[in-house]
Automatic annotation (TrEMBL):
Protein's name in the database: Alpha-catulin
Keywords: Cytoplasm
Origin superkingdom: Eukaryota
UniProt keyword ATP-binding present: no
Gene name as annotated: Ctnnal1
Provenance organism: Oreocharis arfaki (tit berrypecker)
Amino acid sequence: QITTLINHKDKPKRSDKTLQAIQRVGQAVNLAVGRFVTVGEAIANENHELKEEMSVACIEARRAGETIAQLTDVASLDHPESDSHITIFTDKTGVVKAARLLLSSVTKVLVLADRIVIKQIITSRNKVLATMEQLEKVSSFQEFVQIFSQFGNEMVEFAHLTGDRQNDLKDEKKKARMAASRAVLEKCTMMLLTASKTCLRHPDCESARINKDGVFHRMRLALEQVIEIVTDSRPNGENEMAPISIYSGIKEFKNKVEGLRENLYFLSKENLSTMLEVILEHTEDFTDSAYTSHEHREHILELSKQAKMELEQLVSVWMQAQNQKTKDLMEDLEVAILKTCQCMNELKREVHSAATSLAADLLKYHTDHMVLKALKITGVEGNLEAVAEYTCKLSEQKEQLVEMCRLLRHVSGTEPLEITCIHAEDTFQVTGPQIISAAETLALHPSSKIAKENLEVFCEAWESQLSDMSLLLREINDVFEGRRGEKRVYLSLPRPGKHNANLKALKPVKLDTEEQAKIAKLGLELHLLTSDVDSETEKWEDQENEIVQHGQGMSSMAYSMYLFTRGEGLLKTTQDLFHQAEIFATEGTKLASALHALSDQVHDDDKPLLLLEAEKLIPMCKQLQIAAKASVQGKSATFTKVDACILKTRNVMTLLCQLLPLCCKLLRKNKAGNGCLKPAPPWKEDRIRTGTNARAPERRVDTFGIKSLENHVTNMTFLESK
């Protein structure tokens, strides 16, 4: 609204409609400021240390809002030039000054309010720390119950405050760090209870004391990290780290290499060489790992060597092109750029395969939790030798899982997932020794119920983290394949330039705000359909199935088209959208072929229905291709074409939502013996059985279990009777 006033153009003739509109804007600004200031003043009254500053900022904001209202009070003026009353037309600089004062004071109010929120979180953290110190020193069970009840209430308050703050964070990296810290606090709250109780029951047991100290230490670290995130401070003044993952390193390197097309002088050859050296140093984490297969190690070393050669060739041509820009040299440079980027893509694919295949194998191998079960049994038996044997096996398992997390971090694809990998690594690193100390305590006191309960809590934390790893692995694969995170780079868009001469005549066009508003409903429908298709494809046991692959690809492209309707995503112009629609239609035609192939193999009552639905797909895809290729001129005609392409894409996606469950049902019938399908080769059956597509548990909405914690605190009174 303020921008509208500032950008208002002075015209000799002003209609009543214009005058009324200006007055409405001015009044709306003043009313909004009034409501905002009322909240600010209420905050000031509740926080005396900032009351003066907040009150001054609120007064300034209110004054500026009233000034804007006065200067825009022009609707009643028939001849504003001859009137002595000052208005926006006679003193536009006054509106500019008032607007600046308003924005400045509003910003000040927001900053002060934010300081208050931060102070509340810090105060809450300090309360938790103080109560934790009391819990550490407690010597009687009755005193422990009382203090822990207070501690539980304080943790609930801290959970609410940090949860709200996490939702308000705009930085995805900070949000992920906050979620990780709050997850630690959630799990450690229960660990702290059982570890402390075990220590109270067995005060002379060294392993019980070590177990309890580990929980307190980890909670303090998590609390400190929350404050670092909230206050945006880093310990010891450390700076932001350079990209520490191979994925981000390759992405940055490729951006620099591709930038040579536009500017041959924006960076030095030493800069590029250093970037590649850093990436190749990180690949040593794979080649030096005892868990990397011989085949992967050889491929990574080979691609690393090739990357150096491709860069040498690129630098040679690049240096020549700087001195002499001939057509041949520029073509050679383009080839060198493409070869270098292709080599880096292959390297990225290889390390991704190495990390994810290791993770899949390890998670599958440890899914039965045999070592944890053995520790519980031998602990209850009081068999110290057997416990020692299984703790060694758990330590080996811990080293494997820590290495898995380190390698996954390199290929995670996004900063939030990278942080999740680091959090998982820390969890395995810390929880492993804690399980060992809890098991040793139980072995020393095999009849102790609380020692048994304590071991159960730590084992559950380990199992929970393994379960989370399955979900994390799936998300990493989704990002790599373009289905999540940076949202599906499933695009076959041409790069404008000499290799696409046919595009020169096309003028790129973007949708304006009004057009985006018109097409928003259609775009939203498309978005909902992509979610439905994704949900259906996730139900398939065999994610490598050709029908699933085509369905996921089409959903990916439809999602990109939805983002286009919002002015977001990788499709920047209408020409990009039309090209994507063509690719989408081609993918739909391939899906139709796969459906016919399935129908040839199926002998079931649902076969006619499958054929009927599949027959609809081909003409729908052809209609979309025709619409996307149609030549149009003018803004109105272009928008009509955009609308038609998205409408036809929506229709195809609707049909896809019906086809996928039908195909899945037919395949399941066959597997159950209710249908008849030609047998697949044995290797295919093995692949389905040993695949890593097990359904991962759904992620909880609130990573800090506030309700469970509240319930736990409520039931604390029963501890005394125990």
